[in-house]
Design brief:
Distance between the termini: 41 Å
Bound molecules: pyridoxal-5'-phosphate
Number of domains: 2
CATH architecture of the largest domain: 3-Layer(aba) Sandwich
Length: 370
C-alpha cells in the first residue's frame, strides 16, 4: 500500500468494526440469506413502525431533488415540544454517532484529553483519537462506569467526559442519582471547563422506574450534552438520525462543526412520525423485556455468566469467544464479538424476536456441547 503521509494519531486508529451484514455471511458461507439470524447491531427486530413506513411512502414526493432543511425546523420543533426546551437547544445528527463526533470536533484538539470508561462505547475512543487528543480510559467496575474514578481521572487538560447510560457493549446502567451527583461534582471542581456528554442511546429500554428526566439536568447544567437516537427503539437505524440537547453555548459550538445537511429529508420526516408513535414504542419495550428474560434465562440454563442487561442486548461470557462466534456464523447466526472492547471471552447478543432468540440459544447449545 502507498505510504501516504498522515498524522500518527490517525494511523493509530483501529477502524470501527460493524456487525457482519446478512448478505456478507450468506456469500462467505454459501448460506441462504432468508435463514440467517442477525443479532449483532442492537437494532429493533420489529423494524420501524407501520406509521413510519406509510409516511416514508408519501415522503418520496418530498425528495424532488432538493437539499433537506439544513436546520431541521420541523423535527427540532417536535423534539423541543417533547423535551420542553427551546428548539435552539436541539442539534440534529446523522445518527447520534454524528453528535459524538461533533462534540469531539468542537471541544478536543491535540492539547486536550477526554475521559471515558473501559468497555464503554468504542466511538468515544475513536473520536478522541481522531482529534489527536489524549484519552484517559478509566477501568470499569463490574463491567460498568466507575463514576468516582472517572471524576478523579479528570485532568487539567480534560475537556470532555463521555458516559454511556446504559452502556454498550456491557448493557450496564448507572442509577440517575449517581449520574446527577457526578454532574454536580464535575461542576464544583471544574466549573464549565469540562463538558459531560451523556449518551442515552438505549434510554427507551430502561424500566420506567430507572428512567430520569435528563432534560431537566440540561436546564441545570450548562456543561451537559445529552444525546439520544432514533436508531434503536424507534427502529430507524438505516435512516441515521439522532439528536443532542444542550444549552445555547454548547449547541452553538456543535453547530459550528456540523455539516450543513447532515440529516436527510426522509430521516427528518420519519423521526417526527416515530416520535409520536407511542404504541410502537410500548410494543418495542414489552417485546424487548420478554426477549431479555428469554436470553438471560437461556444463558443461565447453559451455565453461562452474563451481565444483567438494561438494554436491548446481553453480554454473555462464552470462553473462547472467537471460536464460538465462528461456529455460530457457520450455523447462520450473527452476534457481535467484543474482543476489541477488551472482552475476548464475551459475545454481545442483541435481543431479537422470540424465534430468533431460540435459534441463537439452540445454536449456542450445540456449539458449547460439541
Ligand atoms: C452507546 C451508543 N451510543 C451511540 C450509538 C450510535 O448510534 P446511532 O449513530 O445509530 O445513533 C450507539 C450505537 O450502537 C451506541 O451503542
Amino acid at each position: 500500500m502507498t505510504d501516504i503521509p498522515a498524522p500518527a494519531h490517525i494511523r493509530a486508529i483501529a477502524p470501527y468494526q460493524a456487525g457482519k451484514p446478512i448478505e456478507e455471511l450468506a456469500r462467505e458461507y454459501g448460506l441462504d440469506p432468508a435463514g440467517i439470524v442477525k443479532l449483532a447491531s442492537n437494532e429493533n427486530p420489529l423494524g420501524c413502525s407501520g406509521r413510519v413506513r406509510a409516511a416514508l411512502g408519501e415522503a418520496v414526493d418530498a425528495l424532488h431533488g432538493r437539499y433537506p432543511d439544513a436546520n431541521g425546523f420541523d423535527l427540532k420543533a417536535s423534539l423541543a415540544m417533547r423535551h420542553q426546551v427551546p428548539a435552539s437547544w436541539v442539534t440534529l445528527g446523522n445518527g447520534s454517532n454524528d453528535l459524538l463526533e461533533l462534540a469531539s470536533l468542537a471541544l478536543l484538539d491535540e492539547g486536550t484529553s477526554a475521559v471515558y470508561a473501559q468497555h464503554a462505547f468504542v466511538v468515544y475512543r475513536l473520536s478522541t483519537q481522531a482529534r489527536g487528543a489524549r484519552h484517559l480510559m478509566v477501568p470499569a467496575r463490574d463491567y460498568g462506569h466507575d463514576l468516582d474514578a472517572m471524576l478523579e481521572a479528570i485532568a487539567d487538560d480534560t475537556r470532555l467526559v463521555f458516559i454511556a447510560n446504559p452502556n454498550n457493549p456491557t448493557g450496564t446502567h448507572v442509577p440517575g442519582a449517581r449520574v446527577r451527583a457526578f454532574l454536580e461534582s464535575v461542576r464544583e471542581r471544574h466549573a464549565d471547563r469540562v463538558t459531560v456528554l451523556l449518551d442515552e442511546a438505549y434510554d427507551e429500554y430502561l424500566d420506567p422506574d430507572e428512567r430520569v428526566d435528563s432534560t431537566r439536568w440540561v436546564r441545570e447544567f450548562p456543561n451537559l450534552i445529552v444525546t439520544r437516537t432514533f436508531s434503536k427503539a424507534y427502529g430507524l437505524a438505516g435512516l441515521r438520525v439522532g439528536y443532542a440537547l444542550a444549552q445555547p453555548a454548547l449547541t452553538d459550538l456543535l453547530n459550528r462543526v456540523r455539516q450543513p445537511f447532515n440529516v436527510n429529508i426522509l430521516a427528518q420526516i420519519a423521526a417526527r412520525v416515530a416520535l409520536d408513535d407511542t404504541d410502537f414504542l410500548a410494543q418495542t419495550y414489552a417485546l424487548n423485556k420478554t426477549g431479555r428474560a428469554q436470553l438471560q434465562e437461556g444463558f443461565a440454563a447453559l451455565g453461562l455468566d452474563y451481565v444483567p442487561s438494561h438494554t436491548n442486548f446481553v453480554l454473555v461470557r462464552v470462553g473462547d469467544a472467537a471460536r464460538v462466534n465462528d461456529q455460530l456464523l457457520r450455523q447462520g447466526v450473527i452476534v457481535r464479538p467484543v474482543a476489541g472492547d477488551g472482552l475476548p471471552e464475551h459475545l454481545r447478543v442483541s435481543i431479537g424476536l422470540p424465534g430468533e432468540n431460540t435459534r441463537l440459544l439452540d445454536a449456542l447449545k450445540s456449539v458449547l456441547q460439541a
